[in-house]
Structure formats: C-alpha cells, structure tokens
Amino acid sequence: MNKLRIGIVGTGYTIGIAKSHIKAYQGLEEAEITAFYDIVPGRAEQFVKENNISYGTVCASLQELFDKTDALSICVPNNRHFDVARAAVDAGKHFICEKPLSSSYAEGKKLVDCLRGHTNKLVSMVGFNYRDIPAIRYMKSLIDEGKIGRVYSCVQQLGGSRIADPVKVKREWRMDKEQSGAGALPDFGSHMLDLADYLLAEENGKIEKVQGFKNTFITNRPAIEGTGFMPVTNDDCAVFNALTGKGSLCSFYACRIGMPFQTLQITGEGGILYFNSREDKKLGVQFKDKKGGYAGPLEFRDIPGEFFGRGGHRGLVIDFIDAIKNGGTAGRDIDRGLYIQYLLDKINEAAESGQVVTV
Length: 359
What we know:
By secondary structure, the chain is of the alpha/beta class. It has two domains: 4-129 and 314-330, NAD(P)-binding Rossmann-like Domain (Rossmann fold); 130-311 and 342-358, 2-Layer Sandwich (Dihydrodipicolinate Reductase, domain 2), CATH 3.30.360.10. It has helices spanning 18-25, 43-50, 62-67, 81-90, 105-116, 134-144, 177-180, 184-204, 314-326, 334-353; strands at 4-9, 31-37, 57-58, 71-74, 94-97, 124-126, 151-159, 207-215, 220-222, 229-231, 237-244, 249-255, 263-268, 271-276, 282-287, 299-302, 357-358. The strands form three sheets. A nine-stranded mixed β-sheet has the order 16-15-14-13-7-12-11-8-17. The radius of gyration is 21 Å and the shape is globular.
C-alpha cells in the first residue's frame, strides 16, 4: 500500500500531546504526516513554526484536513473527542483518539454506537500507550509465564509536577470540568486502570468494586486570556481502590501537582514485580516459592532487549498502522476505551458519594 497519510488534530496550548504522536510517526516507512489542524485560529501555524516542522499542510478546517489524510491522531480536549471522532467516522477516516475516550461514559457510548453503525471497516484506537513501557512489557511476560501465580495486589502511582506552580501555570482546559470532566482521575487513572486490567484480568478477574476520594488543592489559577483568576473545577489529586472478581486488591494514586515518578508493584504468591520510571531499563524482581517465603531481597534486573523499541507512542502507532494494513481489531480499540471510561465514571461516582460502588 502507499504511505498512510496522517493528520494531527489539536496542536495544544501548553504541553500538547501532539508532539508525542508526531515523534511516534517519524521514521516509519508506512506513514507520513501530511496535515495539521487546530480549532483556535493561528495555533497550528504557531505550533509548526515553533517546532521547526517543514512537512505537511496547516489546514483551515477539519474538512480540509480530511481531504489530505487517510487517518488521524485526535489530540483535542476530552469534551471534543466525540465531535472530532464522529466527523472522522463520517468521513471514513481511521483514528487514534487520546485517552480518556470522552468526558463521560454516555458520550463515549454514542461514539461507539456511531462507529458500529458505519459500513466501512474503520480502525479506531485509544491512546493507552503505557503498556509499551519496556519494564511493563517484561512484567506482563513474567505474569503470563506464571512466575507470580495468583496476584494479591497491584499498587500504582502516576502523575506529574508540570502544573504545581499556582501562579505561573495558567488555567488550561485540563482544569475545567466542562472540557475535561474530572481532572487527575481520568488523566492518569485511565492509564493505571488499563494497565491493571491488562496485567491482571485474564487470571485474576475483572474489576468488580471501586471506592475513591479526590480533592482540588489549587482552587484558582490565572486566566489564559486577559487578567484575573479563574476557578479550577476538577480534581488535582485522586486516590482510589478496586477489587477484582478473584479477590486481587488494587490501589491507585493520581496527582498532577507533585509526582516525581511512576511506580507499579505486583505482589503475588510467587513474589514481587516492581517498576519505577527512574529505573526505566530495569525491573525489580523478588521471586519466592509459591509455598514458601522470600529467600533474598528485591533486585533490579536488566530488561531483555526484545522489550524495547515501542516506548512513548511508538507501539501505539505501529499497532494502528498494522491494523489498517492487515485488518482485524487492535487490543486498544474504541471498545477498550469505552470500558475504561465506564470504570472512571464509577470511580468518580464512588468519590462523590463516599460509597463503595459495584461495577
């Protein structure tokens, strides 16, 4: 097939996930980026200039982008995922949509129904790229080999410190419930829930019960346009727990105002697997006899070379292109996105009600 023509929709105001998508496509022989579009006039032009991009066309409308592409990466705020993805479906375009799928399960369900009702066999994926981290790929292989056996617990923390400054960091869309839905909970919780289910569900059951708490600590931030401050209307931090069908306990901490690194620990009858992003080329292991105790300390093991090469969004776009070329469905398809959105809504419900919620 000819090179797949890729469009980037949404170039971002601050951090901009579009950069990660662009980097992932670069160097792939099967695809080339041919178009950029942002709903804010002038923003895409500014993005292309600031990043010294010499390829592709900056488009004045979504339709113009569709005319120049076969597939697209959707990098817009959460509340616009539905509109852009639905337009892509109507135009017969394959797409990757950034996570979470939408700002609510109800909206995500409309998109899934729209895609299922379409006659073209379109590939749709959601950006759950953390499963391509080499240590997590290695961890998955050890779990699948039965090294850990029955899993007792899965403990994760994920977030960042980029927006910790309450004065210099302005109120962007991520801090607005109308545009983003909840805050740190879906932003980081979507990745953690995908990983927990990806690693555990087959042998230890799906999540059946959830509980949670969330809070906003920086309640006002400077307005992006003009002067003055605007209220932050979603959470800065969230803690939540889950119970799987076979009794595995899961604990999660999401924080956007002070998280130095990502961690993930699996503990089971066969030992412990531990990852932290400061040791991104190693995996902590502490195995034991399933009917005995620990004989030695946790040690960091070098990750075999075959687990590298798909980090960032690289593995995501490789799977995307492969699905378009060879048919079938990808493991990170839109149905997966809807399932994770359902869990997020249930956790948000638990946090707002103070109750344990059955999934």
